[in-house]
Predict the structure of Helix-hairpin-helix domain-containing protein.
Amino acid sequence: MIRQLMMAAATLVAAMSMAFAQVDVNKADAAALDSVKGIGPSTSKMILEERTKGGEFKDWADFSRRVKGVGDKRAVKLSQAGLQVAGKPFDGAAPATAARAAPAAKPAAAVKPAQPPSKM
């Protein structure tokens, strides 16, 4: 029983470390790119072809210019999923742990003061 609990805990720790792994687009192979949520086989192929043709990506702006379909919105999502360009996350992207945090509470609606009972 204890051995099973230890194995379950070890598996959970390993899975969590993989979920928050950082993948640098300049160093990753197709498998590593595919492991990033939001990148599939066709996008990873496009990234690798562009990197081979034009060299390493200098920054996120260079990456967005050269890889079709990657604008600011998608760059934020990819960065939150662990993708980095030249070792840096996309500016304006929340860290991966904050991205999964609960949303901020909404402000309370204004409450009308109770009206005094009318006198009849």
